[in-house]
Amino acid sequence: MQPSRRLFTASLAGWSVPALAASRELVLAVATLPPYVLEAGHAAGDGIDIDIAREALRLGGGYRLRVERLSWRRVLAMMELGEADFTAAVRDTPERRRFLAFSRGYGATVQHDFYALRERGPLVRQLEDLAGLRVGIVAGFAFPPPLQAALRGSVEQAINLPTLMRMVAARRIDVAVVNHLPGRWLLQELQLGDRLQRQPFSHDSGDLTHMAVSRARPGHLELLAALDRGLALLARAPGAWTRFETPYLKPLPARAALRRSDGGGSA
Q1: In the 3-class helix/strand/coil scheme, how is 23-52 assigned residue by residue?
Q2: Per-residue pLDDT tens over the stretch 181-227
Q3: Which of 172, 216, 166, 211 is CA-nearest to residue 192?
Q4: What gap in Å lies between CA 37 and CA 51, rounded to an integer?
Q5: Alpha carbons 108 and 258: distance in angstroms, whole number
């Protein structure tokens, strides 16, 4: 047994396994956001956030997990209606607290990048430069107050991040607001590096991302406690979150591992 696994096992021994863990399969509803959530059957794996959720639940109480990949708006609707147990990489907002209970934070702080055309595209050096531009975002994503305030102009919404990146390339929008690592991943996956470029300015929210459980599901407080236990144990391990990121970052420059997305990745 590896030293980190022995540490987890010893730390978990003091916790009682929740009764809910043995009673039913939990539904994790997520939106595809590479590399945090990859499409089902992807050769690289399920994605960073799914791996973290699965391990946190294993450590926190031995839950069984089923993953459903949907649009982000559909994920939020399912959570509000109690059709899924929890979601990952989500931003904590007052509006969402009506129907979600949020876990402790995990990963690094959430960073937002801006993409525009390489040729004749606008230059974004500060949030104020977004004024007067056609800005694109993913529908249902939440943003920190300073960035949200800068998005009061002409905003177009895309169903997902790949669509958003293609909208910039097709000149349907001037700038796309993109989470850091997913943006860099998709620039390569969609082969848009010759058309789009990341702007010199990035907005670091200063906030960690969270998992969140649906308040409408039975045993949601028990599940939340299990997630918090598991995330706390993961945070104590050597390398913490980097060990989840590394397997997915081989196609990207090494420094991309220093940041996570929005989201989310929080959304």
Answers
A1: CCEEEEEEECECCCECCCCCCCCCCHHHHH
A2: 899 888 988 999 999 999 999 999 888 889 999 999 999 999 999 99
A3: 166
A4: 9
A5: 8
154 contact partners, CB below 8 Å, separation of at least 6: 133, 134, 135
Which H helix or E strand runs over 262? none
Q: Which domains does the chain have, with CATH numbers?
A: 3-108+206-258 (3.40.190.10), 111-204 (3.40.190.10)
pTM: 0.73
Is-contact 222 20, C-beta < 8 A?
yes
In tens, the pLDDT along 136-175 reads 999 888 888 999 999 987 899 998 889 999 999 999 999 9
pLDDT value at position 251?
A: 61
Residue 185, token pair as written in the block:
């991943």
- Greatest alpha-carbon pair distance for the chain in Å reads 60
Tokens matching residue 151:
């998005």
Alpha carbons 70 and 137: distance in angstroms, whole number: 17
**Structure tokens belonging to residue 215:** 């308040």
